[in-house]
Amino acid sequence: METLLIIVHVVVCLFLIGIVLLQHGKGADIGATFGGSSQSLFGTEGPLPLLNKITTLSAVIFMVTSVALAYIASQNSAGSVMSRAVEEKPPVESTVEPQAQTVVPEGSETAPAVAEPPPAPAQQGGETPAQ
After folding, report:
1. How far apart are CA 68 and CA 9, in angstroms?
2. Closest listed residue to residue 18, CA positions, set 43, 51, 63
3. Which helix (H) or strand (E) holds 44?
4. Nearest to 42 by CA among 30, 25, 24, 58
5. C-alpha 48 chain-centroid distance
6. Is residue 62 within 8 Å of 54, Cβ to Cβ?
7. Above 60 in pLDDT, residue 89?
8. Keyword annotations for this protein (predicted)?
9. Do residues 5 and 69 lie in contact, with contact meaning Cβ atoms separated by under 8 Å?
10. How much is the pTM?
11. Do residues 39 and 24 lie in contact, with contact meaning Cβ atoms separated by under 8 Å?
12. What is the pLDDT of residues 50-80, one digit of tens each?
């Protein structure tokens, strides 16, 4: 049901964008006084009443689907976003380089071997690090 509602919502949204872009602005009537063509396709009043009705209908459908999707999302959620943000603190990343780690082979009961520390990064300019 939710998937169908999302599909209808997206289609109505795209249709609403298209129908609004088809409408002309308030200053577009000035061009008709200087020899603009007549709009006989939509009758004597022009496309205004038809486009207004289509725009109003699609806006109402858009609002209804928006409210329905918000209601469904609120019913499916387990809690507030803010309550989860307080509970789940992000891990603090250390800026200290890791020390040598002990490696214990599986099945071994002897003392663990110490792994070598990672090699130091090479310096630029051909210089060797001082020891």
Report:
1. 10
2. 51
3. none
4. 24
5. 35
6. no
7. yes
8. Cell membrane, Membrane, Protein transport, Translocation, Transmembrane, Transmembrane helix, Transport
9. yes
10. 0.48
11. no
12. 888 999 999 999 999 999 999 998 888 776 7
What is d(CA 47, CA 22) in angstroms, rounded to the nearest whole number? 10
DSSP 17-80: HHHHHHS--GGGHHHHHTTPPP-GGG-TT-SHHHHHHHHHHHHHHHHHHHHHHHHHHHHH--S-
CA within 13 Å, CB half, 83: 4
For residue 76 the two structure tokens come to 């499916």
Length of the chain: 131
Q: Hey, what amino acid is at 107?
A: G
| Residue type (1 letter), 77 | S
Distance of alpha carbon 118 from alpha carbon 120, whole angstroms: 6
Count of alpha carbons within 13 angstroms of residue 60, beta-carbon side: 6
Q: By C-alpha distance, which of 82, 117, 124 is closest to 102?
A: 117
Cα(51)–Cα(23) distance, integer angstroms: 7
CB 31 within 8 A of CB 70: no
Extract the tokens encoding 95: 């800026």
Contact by Cβ (8 Å): 112, 102: yes
